[in-house]
Structure formats: structure tokens, C-alpha cells
Amino acid sequence: xxxxxxxxxxxxxxxxxxxVRETTTERAYRDAKPVxxxxxxxxxxxxxxxxxxxVAYAATPRLDVAGLVAAAQQAHAQAVQASKRxxxxxxxxxxxxxxxxxxxAAKRPFDSVPVAELSGLLVRICERMKTSDKVVRTESFAxxxxxxxGLVSSSGADAWQRFSLVTTDFQTTAKHGDVVQRRTDxxxxxxxxxxxxxxxxAEDLWSRVDRVADEAVQLVHAPECPTGTLDLLLAPxxxxxxxxxxxxxxxxxxRILGDERNYAGWSFVQRADFGTLQYGSAAMTVTWDPTLPxxxxxxxxxxxxxxxxxxxxxDKGLLxxxxxxxxxxxxxxxxxxxxxxxxxxxxxxxxxMANLNLEPGDxxxxxxxxxxxxxxxxxxxxxxxIDDFRNKFQFGCELGRRIRNGKVGEVVRNxxxxxxxxxxxxxxxxxxDRSTFQAYGTPYCGKGEPNQxxxxxxxxxxxxxxxxxxxGGAS
Amino acid sequence: xxxxxxxxxxVADALLSAAAPGEFLTVELAAESSQxxxxxxxxxxxxxxxxxxDLRVTLYLRGADGVRRATRTQTLCGEAATDRDRCTATLRAxxxxxxxxxxxxxxxxxxxxxxxxxxxxxxxxxxxxAVEALLGPASDLDLAGLYAAGTMMRAVATSAGARHWFxxxxxxxxxxxxxxxxxxxxxxxxxxxxxxxxxxxxxxxGRSQLQALRRPAVRIGRGDHRAWxxxxxxxxxxxxxxxxxxxxxxxxxxxxxxRGLREGDxxxxxxxSLAEAFDGGHVPRFDDRGELAPARHDLIxxxxxxxxxxxxxxxxxxxxxxxxxxxxxxxxxxxxxxGSLDDRAVLGLLGNGLWLxxxxxxxxxxxxxxxxxxxxxxxxxxxxxxxxxxxxxxMRWDDSLFSLxxxxxxxxxxxxxxxxxxxxxxxxxxxxxxxxxxxxxxMRMTL
Lengths: 475, 447
Prior knowledge:
The structure holds two protein chains of two kinds.
Chain A: H1 2-7, E1 14-30, E2 33-51, E3 54-60, H2 65-82, E4 99-103, H3 115-129, E5 135-153, E6 158-176, E7 179-184, E8 191-194, H4 205-221, E9 228-234, H5 236-251, H6 253-256, E10 286-288, E11 311-315, E12 318-319, H7 326-332, E13 340-341, E14 350-351, E15 356-358, H8 365-370, E16 374-386, E17 392-404, E18 407-412, E19 416-420, H9 421-426, E20 428-431, E21 438-447, E22 452-460, E23 463-471
Parallel strand pairs in A: 4-6, 9-16
Antiparallel strand pairs in A: 1-2, 1-5, 2-3, 5-6, 6-7, 6-8, 9-23, 10-11, 10-15, 11-12, 13-14, 16-17, 17-18, 17-19, 19-23, 20-23, 21-22
Chain B: H1 5-16, E1 23-40, E2 43-63, E3 66-75, H2 80-97, E4 115-120, H3 130-135, E5 142-158, E6 163-178, E7 184-191, H4 196-213, E8 223-229, H5 231-239, H6 248-252, H7 259-263, E9 274-277, E10 296-301, E11 304-305, H8 312-318, E12 334-336, H9 346-350, E13 353-366, E14 371-384, E15 387-391, E16 396-400, H10 401-407, E17 409-412, E18 417-420, E19 432-435, E20 438-445
Parallel strand pairs in B: 4-6, 8-13
Antiparallel strand pairs in B: 1-2, 1-5, 2-3, 5-6, 6-7, 8-20, 9-10, 9-12, 10-11, 13-14, 14-15, 14-16, 17-20, 18-19
């Protein structure tokens, strides 16, 4: 890329090349039989060129100098045309000259586990979850990702990062009469982390497998979740979704600026709300933290080269900072974070979430439960929907447990709740302490035109909300 | 990446000829050469060119104890020597991996030897004229959207002799127009030839429609409302049938909400019929093993489940004929049968209720029971006495497909509309669905 950069003769404010090489392997088993053993090896370069403050791109799978030069020339031609009708005139300040060579840690590298051993484990997980005739489907899943990105530019950037990523999942579907229930290990693909196979071959693996199978069978015999205005105690694997949809997306500066309104939507948050909007109760402190070890979307600089570090976005309920990279910060004048990222080499970087976490409070698990007079504990997301301004949401979980007078009671099925973002977060009454704090992630955050799926991580303690509209299933 | 049939055949031939005894291969291509122009405020936010090509190879290894298989997808770069090396490396990696895997009892060796060629040429805007052609006529409007244009290629070849090629040169323009008060209308324009007059007509129509959106919005109450669902909204509802509903595996494995329909316990309206119809040529008919789906495949006829989507794996597992469905057994070319409503009479027939042009963020709220939740979005209005009164504030709804496509379904419009696929996760996706609008006696608003 350096050679191609030196070979270019373009009238441009700035030129950059971003190389991505990503190898993903998925292994999926159902009822102890293989469904998919598939590997994707993707490699290419995104050339970006800035002309008169307008950035345009050209993505190419050709990696030789001639291919890169041709891509830069295509991007230049696009930038020239687009600069006649620019939304905003940027400067090379939005593409910093970062130098970096970072390799994220992985305790158990992917090549240390033979294919047969990995497949054998996934088969055994399925077999172990087949605990009764009520179990009609068992599934196990493991995905490994090895990704390397490199950014070089005319402003002097030379930033290289390499990550190993793991997603694991197993599921049991149980049926009793007309009742069908599915239980997973932390919500669909929720166990997504940076690192190696240590996240699959974990000490608590078999206890989690047993729990998933047992709870699936419990659920088909359980009563429906009650309907009413109740206290709601959310587990970290549901807090992940709650944070993602009702904090992460509304705080994205490109949504606030209107970039996403034709597709993903925009936000109820206005520019004037930063520094003034009491987003939630004083128990709510939200950080953007790309440095938390093992969390799914950590990195040292984003795809524009902006250096990444921990920042507070919501401080004791007060909104203070947005989720936007250098371009959105320049356009909006709002403080942001290094979060302009692309899903691959064939997409331009846009504002994304990365790791967005709710900081622990001071309540032990026992204190959280004791604070509930009449409520429901919910775990593991299974349904999610929210409006295009990120106000009215409705989320469903896999498993609920009734809580009455400070004591955990029976399992209930089809637990759902709905609410409106700011009133809901202002109803945050207690936040669990570090002993309840857990990290999850998802590979499936969708956004952008052209569309991009990207990895995000969310860590949270268990949280108690007051006065939430809770309801059960259709029957 | 623009790849012609000759170049693809050379890649496929080289791989297929390398198969050893006991080895069977399927070789697939997904490629594009596309221009994207993303705009907001009728100005360019981002624009660019994407060349991409993925080669997907599946190796089936037949042994004494059964068939093992694995798949690898590799980016092609368009340089013959480099791509040959990548093909060789791909096959070598598969040969190292497959013997380590357990037998797959439901792996079906490629068997068919059908061939097909479907090429749709186009006349698109040149990359250097797209910005002005799109935004020049809209400079007085707050326009946001994405113009995606170029050639998409899909192909498959198998060691059994099947060989299919599909390419389409086309564009989609997925746009929205806004009032100062953040109310919007949505539109899509698509085709193989850019039509400047059609774009200008759309914008003129949009300017007119924005007048109604400038009226103060009203908040409607929770509960059941009569509603007209415009074709784009119906397309969103129909897409839910792809989420573990009409696939044979989802029915057999207990998660499909249509189990009751199959068992005769539940019913949909006799007015509702759903099929897969490939006669429009918008999407490839072939599956990943080179088998062709029927040109038309009825799934729900007059409210009864008469067919399902069956891929090769389900066919083998459940002993059924394969319908050429994809791995997810999802809809690729959905078509809903029209009804008898005259579009011009819809407002009068609706009387008092809601006009819903678009829905948003649909999800199962209780999948086995067939309950769906979602939002209203874009140009949605309260209608009184057959007249549009005012835009409504965004509402959440939660209802059953057995109601919306069942008891509550009053009628569908006589004219069905092609709603183009505009998705581009990974790559631009071809296709779309053909659906009419739908009048329902009740749709439950919940928040």
C-alpha cells in the first residue's frame, strides 16, 4: 500500500488505503449432526480519496500496486463529482496520522484445537442437551474470526491491528402439547468475545449446557408471564439488548445528523440535549470502552485512524457525549469517540457503537431481589423492535421468573415488556454491583447504506426498573 | 467485480476437473460491480465504487460410512494467476478439513445436470453523471437515500454437470423526502434503465404528498383500528414468512407459527394466497447445488398451506421432493395474489381508520403463536369519512398473522406492485416481491 501511495499522482486533499484480511469459520450442529462447516476468507482494500473536502471510496479485491492505483483513481473521480454537491467539507484532520501495531490477546489460539476435537465437542453438547422426549431440537455453534486491518495514508497513518474473535451458542427447543419454547446460552449469539477458544472450552461450559436444556423443559410447563405494570429485573444478557437499542443507537451522531433516516432511522436526541438531557436516573452511568479485555469490539484506533480510549457518555443519568467519529464531530460540534468503523474492506467507515457498557452500581444480587415487591426477572433476548426515533420499544426474553415480596418464585414463559426510552431509563432504581457484571456482544448490528453488519460488545450488571409494562404470550 | 461467463467457466472448469474419485464439488459465484451514492439533504454524504467477487466451493467426500462435507468461500481478485492459486489453496484446505468431520447423514450429493443462463442487460447512468442526475432535480427538497447501481452476477457449477449463470445490470433508488417537521414519505425506483422522466415525476408526486404531511400530527389511541396497508407495508409483513415460517425444517422442528395451519387447527383468510414466482427473472432460480426451483410454487392457497420451501437437506432428512429452496428456506420471489379492491376506492372503503404506507422493525413477539410486533413509519395517516385527516404519531402495533392475514383481512387491491429488494448486506441483493395493498378490519396498536 505504501508503494501504491507513492505511485499516485492525484490532485487530492488526502488519500488512504485500508486493507482487511478476515477469515471466519463457522461450525453448526443440530441434534448432534453437522449442519454447516464453512470458512470465509475475505481480502481486499478500500481506497479513500478526499477532494475539496469530499471523501469518496473505491473497494477492490486486487492487492497489487496497479489494482490499488486504479481504485484510488476511481475514488478520485467519484470525489470530484460528489464534491459539486457536498453535504459537508471535511479536511485531512478527520483522517489522523496514527502509528500503531497492535495484536489483541488470545489465550488459546484457533490452530491449537484440531477440527475433529472442536466438532466432537459440539456433537457432545447436542447429545447432552437431549435430556427428555420433550426436547425436540438441540443445536450447538462455534464461530472463530481472525481479522487483520491495516491503514496507510498520505497524512502518514500507518496503523495495523489484529484480533481473534469467538462466538459460541447452544440451544434447546422443547415442546409439550402446543407449547414450544427455545432456550439459548445468553441470547442468540450473545456470547461473543475477543480471544481464542478459551471462551468455548470454559470451566463452566457443561453447567451452562445443562442449564439451557433444563430451563427449556421448565419453560414448556411454565405459566405465561403475567400482564401488568410491574418491577422489572433484567439480567446482563438482556441488558445488552436494552443498552444497544435504547442508548447506543440514539446516541449515534450520524443518526442525530440524519444520515441514517432513510434506512435505520434517526434519533429522538437533539444536538442541544448534550450536557442538558437527564437521560436516566442518577444510577445510570454509561461508558464507551474499547479497552475492556475480552469484550467483543475493542480496538486501539478506528477505521479513520482516530485513537480509541475509554469515555463517559452518560454521567449519573446526564447525557454528556455522543457516539460519533471525527467526521460527525466536525459536522455537529459535539464531543464524540473514535467509532467510525467499516464492516469490511468493501464498505466505508460510519459511526458505530463498539463496546458500550453500563457501569456497576452498589447493589448485590440479594439486594436487587429484596427490593422487588411485585415483579419479573427476565433473561436472554429473543425479540426486539424499536421505532425509528428510538423511543417506543418492545423486547421479549426467553425466560422469566416471578419475584414477589423480595423472593424469587416460579419460571414464567414468553416474558415481554415495552416502554419509552427516557421514561424507562429514569425508572432505573438499582444497579447491580460488580459481582453481577457480565459482558456479551453481538455480531449482527445492522446499519448504513450500503448496509453493514458489525460487531459490538455490551457489558452490564443486573438492573432493576420500576413501573414497567410487562406481558406474556398470545395464548 | 465484472466477471464474464467465459472467465467464470474457466474458474469452475479448473476446480471441477480437479475432483478426485469419491469427491464431488459445487462451485458458486457471487459478484458485483456497483456504484453507491448516499445522500442526505439532497447532497452527497458518501459515494463510491465496489468491485467484489466471492468463490464458494463445497467439497463432498463419499466414504464407506457416508458423506462428509465442508465449504470455503474465497475472494477472487480478477487476476488469473492469483485466482488460480487461491482456487488451489481452497481445494487443498477443504481436502485437509473434510476427513476430520463427522458423517453428515443429510448431505445430498449434487445430482442434477440442468443448465440455465439468465442475463438482463441494462442502461444505467455513467458513474460520473449519477450525482447530478439524482440530485439536480431534487435540489429544492430534503431528500435522503441510496442509489445503488451496477451488475450483479450469480453462478453455480457442479461436478454432476449442472451449470447456471445469472447476471443483471440494474439500479435501485431507495429514497425518502422530508418536511421541516421530520415527517417523511418513502419511495423506491428500480429497473434496468435509468428513466430521468420517471424520477422527475416521482419527485413531483412527492412534493404534492408532502403537503399532507405538513399538517399537525395526531396521536391515536391504543386498541384495534381499521387499516389500509399499502404494498410496501404488506411486503414487510410477508417477509416474516421467511423467518422460520414457510420452511419445511421450521415446521418439522416445531418453531414455525404455521404448524396449526398444517395440522388444520388454524386458518388464514380464503382471500390470502402466497407463492414463489420466478417468472419476473429478478432473482436466480437455482439453488447452491445447481437445482432449479419451480417457476411457480404455491405455498398458501386461499388460506390453506399447500406447499413449503424444501431445500436439499430437508428433502433428504424428511423424504420429500426438493423445491430448490435456499439454506434458510426463505422466500426469494414472494408473490401475494391480488384481490378485488380498486386503489382509487380505498380511502372510501377504509372510511374511518389508518392509512399505513410503511411498517418498520418487525419481529416475532411470540413466534410459535404467530404474533408479530413492529412500528408504523413514514407517511401514515388518520382517515375519517374517507378523507386523509392528518399524519399520525408513530405507533407500535402487536398483532397475529392469523388475524392480519386471517379473520381481519377484508380484501386486497386488484393491482399488485413489485417492491424491489434494496438490501446490500455483504453485497447488493437482487430480487423483490410482488404484493397488493391490504384492507384489514382491525390492527392492534399497543403503544
